[in-house]
Amino acid sequence: MKLPNSGNNFRWAFGAATVAVCLIASAGQIAAAPRSSGAIQGGLGPPTRVEIALDANTDSALLAREGKTRDAFGFPVGVSRVGRHVIDGFQATEYDEVTELDAAGNVEALTQFNSKGRLRTAVRLDATAIAAAGPKVTQDGAVRSAQRSAVAAGLGVGAPTATEADQAAGGWTVHWARQQDGVRVRGDETRIHVLPDGRIQSVAIAEHDLAPVPARRIAFATARQVARANLDSWFNGRNSAYSIQKVELEWVGPNGAFDPARIATAEPPYRLAWVTDVKPSGDAAGYVWLMSLFVDAADGSIIGGDFVE
Amino acid sequence: MRRASTWLVSMLIAVSTLGVPGQAAASYDAHVWSNSDAFKIACLGVNDTYPLQHYNLAVAQLGKLGFGPVAGALGPGFTRTAFLANVLSDWAVYVHSHGDNYWAASGAPNVDSGILQDPGAGKCNSSKDMIRSSSIKATTQGSFYNIVIMSTCMLGSNSSTMPAAFQIAKTKQSTDYEFYLGYVFHTWDSSSLRFEQAFWSYVNGGTPHSRTLAGAFAYAASVGGYTAVSASEPFQANWWGNPYYDGTPLRPAARSPR
Known about the structure:
The structure holds 2 protein chains of 2 kinds. By secondary structure, chain A is α+β, with helices and mostly antiparallel strands. Chain A is built from 6 helices and 13 strands. In chain A, strands 1, 2, 3, 4, 5, 6, 7, 8, 9, 10, 11, 12 and 13 form a 13-stranded mixed β-sheet that branches. Chain B has a single domain, classed as 3-Layer(aba) Sandwich (Rossmann fold), CATH 3.40.50. In chain B, helix 3 (about 50-65) runs parallel beside helix 7 (about 190-205) and helix 7 packs across helix 8 (about 215-220). At the A-B interface, helix 1, helix 2, strand 5, helix 4 and strand 8 of A face helix 1, strand 1, helix 2, helix 3 and strand 2 of B.
């Protein structure tokens, strides 16, 4: 049986040694391309990621912040560090990224800071963290470990809003949901994943810009009426019905869930909206578990939504 | 200088031409399937764009990893017949649809996971559209798969039988070149799209094949910002396979019956 990385080592060695091998590979891809019948549809091009190398001398402050974060969370120290500014078309955002590399150039840990210099995410990616097994640390122990590391990194956290066992990596994921003036910001959070042995695997701060609070806000009853009017027209004449599960005020990201023309290439500021969760019944219940409408709290327009298919 | 350039270009063309037959013979078929008609006006009164967004991302990124030809369908072409007719020749498979863990024909507690084919233009899904993991397993005939992504609800849970349909054991220590990705609970489409965007950004954003798929998974999980369906159903993705596999299309000669 082949060793897992034997193919990589082989390819790297020859790739560095001869341009010809690269050309052969490229030529094969070019030749194969026209045979593909899978095509991008709807005028949406594939995303790209642009990396601009940073100079360690001029970006010493960035490296210092990365070092502080790395040490606060107990991440491995690489034999070298690489800093870059990333324009990430996949995630529709930009950030500065520092990677800690081992002697072979493998990523041991990665830390990203957003355009305001705030921590975006930090994750250890060394072999001991990728395939850790079996929950050992207790939930309380995981929360304490997460809180201790967060404080060391200068993150203000109190009691978590949720903690759950992680089926994929084992251990626990601790969440602090973001609220603005008592209103939840959908998806925004500080999140720390604690490995089964109590070490921290990752920390994230998901934090979107918010639009100004609307001067006038439509009432709960009005928002429900708007949602119901849309849903009535959508479900009318079909072998399906619906029930509204909840209508709650949230900050949400406008999106193109119902309109491809509104699919954004950059993350727009979040808007205050009445989020209406809808449970289909009848035929639709067989393929849609839940759907959500975002009713703009300022003008009652539908600015996006979501589906659980 | 000009002569040197001409010589170099000639050499490059010659080497490239020599390389084509061998590479072309080693194609690594992939199929990307996305059910969109069940989520259109005929069934919901509105057009859900998430099937399109997931489909486009997967088509581009599997191709970038080197799989090709990347075929499949967004919408009516995604039928049970088409899926089962093509899956044996695939090295990578991606599905975006409704998915769940259903009781097997033998009854509870045995599970036979399933996905829904596209119902066809102007039609809505019914249970007759189900493609069961048992059917897929019977069709794959023990063959080997590099990458399987079930962008559906529930098929990354520990009770899912979908990985076994592609001969992928539920271990994170496999030594074969294989990787299965799925979601554990019911999942908002915005969350699965966000996860997959981060996943592909990490693995395909830099030097090709320099990073592992397991690393990409850890990175995507780390960015957070995923909306839970409920307190009892947080967002969770899951994977099984080889922690060192970098997504290069590879044939494990010892395992492949083809």
